[in-house]
Amino acid sequence: MNRLLDGPVDGMEKDGAVNHTVEVATSFHDKNTFRPTNSLVQPLLTDLYQITMAYAYWKAGKKDSFAVFDLFFRKNPFDGEYTIFAGLEEVLRYIYCFRFSEDDMGYIRSIMPAGTEEEFFQYLADMTTRDISVYAVPEGSIVFPREPLIRVEGPLPVAQMLETTLLTLVNFPSLVATNAARIRHAAGPSKELFEFGLRRAQGPDGGLSASKYVYIGGFDGTSNTLAGKLFGIPVRGTHAHSFVAAFTDLTSLKNKMMKHRKTGVEVDFVALSQKYRAEMAPLFQVIDNEIDGSGANNGELAAFTQYAMAFPNGFLALVDTFDTLRSGLLNFCAVAKALADLDYKAVGIRIDSGDLAYLSKQARQFFKTVANRFGLPWLANAKIVASNDLKEETIYALNEQNHQIDSFGVGTHLVTCQKQPALGCVYKLVEVDGHPRIKLSQDVAKLTMPGRKTIYRLSGGSGNEALIDLIQRVSEPPPEPGKRILCRHPFEESKRAYVLPTTVEALHVLYYQNGHVFHDRLPSMEDVRANVQRNLVNLRNDHMRRLNPTPYKVAVSPDLYDYVHDLWLANAPIGELS
Amino acid sequence: MNRLLDGPVDGMEKDGAVNHTVEVATSFHDKNTFRPTNSLVQPLLTDLYQITMAYAYWKAGKKDSFAVFDLFFRKNPFDGEYTIFAGLEEVLRYIYCFRFSEDDMGYIRSIMPAGTEEEFFQYLADMTTRDISVYAVPEGSIVFPREPLIRVEGPLPVAQMLETTLLTLVNFPSLVATNAARIRHAAGPSKELFEFGLRRAQGPDGGLSASKYVYIGGFDGTSNTLAGKLFGIPVRGTHAHSFVAAFTDLTSLKNKMMKHRKTGVEVDFVALSQKYRAEMAPLFQVIDNEIDGSGANNGELAAFTQYAMAFPNGFLALVDTFDTLRSGLLNFCAVAKALADLDYKAVGIRIDSGDLAYLSKQARQFFKTVANRFGLPWLANAKIVASNDLKEETIYALNEQNHQIDSFGVGTHLVTCQKQPALGCVYKLVEVDGHPRIKLSQDVAKLTMPGRKTIYRLSGGSGNEALIDLIQRVSEPPPEPGKRILCRHPFEESKRAYVLPTTVEALHVLYYQNGHVFHDRLPSMEDVRANVQRNLVNLRNDHMRRLNPTPYKVAVSPDLYDYVHDLWLANAPIGELS
Fold it and tell me: Where would I find the Nicotinate phosphoribosyltransferase N-terminal domain in this sequence (chains A, B) (predicted)?
C-alpha cells in the first residue's frame, strides 16, 4: 500500500485515515497465531481502576456511550526532538484477543465489593473489542509531542479498559526504539550495533522487548537468543571472561589437534599457536617499548585455541581478561596466524574494559604490523568490537578520538534507557457521545486537544523532506499537495505559517474495526525497521543533532485551533481578584 | 526453620550452608506448578555466547569439569548502603524446569555454524540441571557488595549456561525491592504505599515484576490487577480523570436514585449532593477568601455521585480534574455528606497534581471544618492519597513541609528505578576442578574473590543488631557465638577488627541439589516481605539514612584473606619500568 498522497485524495475516509475499500479485511484469522508474544499480556494486566470505572460507567447507564481516546506523549525523550513510535502490532494482538477468562472473572468477583450487581459480571465476562476501532500511525513512524499516535473509538467502558495495557505496550517499545535510533545516529550507518543488555534489563521481557525494538530502531542484532528465535533477529555472541578463566594452562588441554580446512592434514594447533606467539612477541615493541609479549597469559592462549578449534570460521576473541595490550592481542594474533595456516580467517577481537579509543587504535596498529610481517593482509581489517557500559555520549566521545572500532555491543544504558527510563505517553478521553472533552490544566503543555483528530505530514522539495505535521479534525478535508495551507501553532495565537507541500502523507491508518485486524496494512518487522531508517533520512539533520536540536513543528488547522480555543474558554474557570 | 545459630552449630554442612538432614527434600514436585511465572523465562532467554561457550567447553573435553560461580554485585544502588536480595524463587523455578525443547534445538541448529558436531546437539538436548547445586541467601535478605548472593556449583557448561537468566531474574527484582524499601523508609511505617506504575514500566513484566517485588520491599499493594491475581497482592484503584471527563452535566444523568443502607428508603442522591454543595460552598472561605464554591464543576459532581452510587463503601474521589480547591474538594464533601445521610462513610480523596503538601494541608483543614459544621467527625480523618511523579526525594521534601497525606501512589520513578535503572550483579567463575579462579583488574573494586565461600552475619547486643558480615571459605569452621573472631578488610591489609558476636547467622542455604528443590526452605511471599522489614529493623539507622549513610562492614576471615592475596600475587603480572 502507498500512503503517500501525491495526487487526488483517493481511498481516504472522511475521518482522515487511509482506508482501502478494494482490499477487504481478512475476515478471520486464528487467535492462536495473532496472540500477544508474552502470555502475560491479557485483560487483567491493567490498573484496577479500569474495572471499578467500568462498573461505575455501567451503573450510570453509560455502557453504550461512544468514546474517543487519544494516546500521545508531551515531550520527546532523551532531550531530543524526535521519537520512534513502536509497539503497535502487540497492541493489536492484545486488542484482538481481549476477553476475560473464567478464571479472571473469579478473581474479579473476589476483589469487587459485596453488593456489586451480578449483571455487571455478566457484562464484563461478555466484553469484547468487537465495537472498537483503532486508528494509528504506522509502527516505526517518526512522531512528535501531542500527536495522537493511536485513536481508539468505541463503547466508553471498553475503550477505557484498554488504557493501561496500551500505554505499557507503547511506552517502553517507543522509548527503547528511539534510544536505539539515537545511538545509530551517533555511530553512523557503517558501524555494526549489537544489543547485549538482557542481563541488566527490567525483567525477562524488558530484555526481550528491548531486543526487538532496538532492532526496529536501527541495531543490527542482539545477543538474546530467544529474541532471535521469536522474531528472527540476527543473534551474535562468542565468549565471556569466564571462558578464559576456565583454562588454567596449555599442558592440561585434552584437545590439541586440528585439521587443515582443505587437505585434512592434522596439526598440533596448540603448539602451532605457541610457536607463532613466540615469533610475534617482539613485534609488540612497535606499540610500546615496555610490552614484549612476556606477559602473555597461557590460560588465555589455551582458551583462545579451544575457542578457535570450535569456531574456526568465527574466531572472535575477548582480549581483556588479563591485559589487552600485554596478553590478549598477542594471543589472538598467534591463534589467528595458526588458523590461517589451516586456511581459516579469524574474525577479530572484543575489548570490554579500559580506554576503548586508545586500545582500539593500538589494536589496529598491531593488526597492521602483524598483517604485514606475516603476510595476512586481511588481518589489518580484523573486526574490533567494543563493549562496556556504552551509551550515546560515549560513542560521540569515541568518534572525537578517531576510534578504530567496527562494532559496538551496547547493554545496560540501551535496554534500561538509563538517561530517561520512561516515556510519558498518556491516554485521554477527547470525545464522548459527540461532545468534545477537554482536560484543563494550569500548565498549557498539559492541556489536551478535544475531538476526533487526524494527522498529515506535509513534505516539500522533492517530497522527501518533512516540513511540518498538521493535526486536523477528521471532518475537515485533507490538505492537498500543491495547495497552500495555513498552519497554526496549537497554543500561540500569533504563530501561523502558510505551507505549500509537494506531498501530503496521511499518518493515521485504520488497523482494527468490527473485530477484524487489517493484516494487509501491518508491515513486517523488517519493513518497520527499514521504514524507521527511511523516515529518519527525511528528517532534517538539525532536528536530530545531539546538542540543541531544533523542534520539529506540529501545527493545527485553523478550524481545529478555533474548536480547541473556544472549548478552553468555555470550560476554564474565571479567576477573581479582590 | 531457624537459621539463627545461637547454640552449638548443628545441622550445618561443611560447606557452611545450613542443611537439614532430618527434613528430607520433597522428592518430586510437579513441573506444572513450579514453573517460572513468565513463560518467556526459558533456557533460550540467554545470551548466545552461553551456547557457543558450551560447544567450545564440550569440544575441549570440559563438559564434566566441576565449576563454582558466584553471583554478586559491587555497589549498592541509589547511592545507598544496603540492598534487598530478591528474585530467588523465580531463579529456582527456572533452574528446576531448565530443558531445551525440540523447538529450541531446531533453532539452535539453525544458528550454529555448519560443521558443529552432531553429538553436541545431543548433549545440549539432554542437558539438565540435575548435577547443579544452588546455595543462596534467603530471598528478602539485606545484602552488601561482594557477598556471594547465589553460589552455583556443577558441570562447567551447565553452570555457565545459567548466567544470563539468573542475572536477569535477580538484578531487577533486587533493584526495585530496594527502591521500595527506601521509599518505605522515607514515608515511615504508618503511611500506606501503593504502586501505580504499570503503564510506565519497561514491558509487561517489568510492570509485573515491579508490583511483586515492591510489595516484598515494603509497599502495601498495587494497582496491577494481574499481580493481584497471580501473587495475591492487595490491589487498589478508584477512577481516573477520564471518568470525570466522561460526565458533562447533572441533568443528563440516567441514574439518580439511591437507597438508604438500612431503611432501603430511596432518595434523589444527585439532588441531595447538589443541596449539600450549595450549603457547604460558603465554608470554602475559611481556606481562602477567593474561593467560594462558585467554580465547582457540575460534570465533576455528576461523576462523583455516580462513582459513590457504585461504590458507596469505597468512595475515594480524584479531585484535581478541574481545580482541587475551587471544585474537587467541595464536590467530594457534598457527596460524602449525602452518602452519610444514607448511612455510608466516604473514604477520601486523591490529589494527582499541584503542590501536594499545600493541597493536602488545605484539604485536611477543610475536612475538619466540614466535619465540625455538618456533624461528620470521621470526615476530619478522611484519607488523603497523593500521586504524581513521586519519588524518594519528594517524600522527604513533603515530610519537611508537614504534609497531611495518608497514602502515596508511586509510579514511574518506583517501577523504572529512574535514579538508577539497573543493578550491576555479575556472575563470576571462582573455581574449576578444584582450582581457584580469579578475575584480575587494575581496579581493586573489580577483583573477584576465588574459591567456594560462604557468609555469616555476626550480631551483637541482644542479637538484634547486625555488626558485620564475614565471608569465609566453606572449608573453615563457622564462627561461634560468644567467641572472639578476627575479621579483616578484604583489600586493606591494616584494617582488622575483633568481633564478639552474640549470635551468628549462616546466610547461605542450600536450595537445590540432585534435581530437588528444598521447598520447605522457601518462605512464602508474605514471609519474605515480613523478613525484609524485620531485617531492616536490625540494621543500624546510620546505614539507612539518605545522606552520607555509613557503609556496613563486610569482612573476610584471615584464612580467606591469605588465600585471596596469595592468588592475586601469583597471577598479577609484574610491571616493568625502564
Answer: 44-171
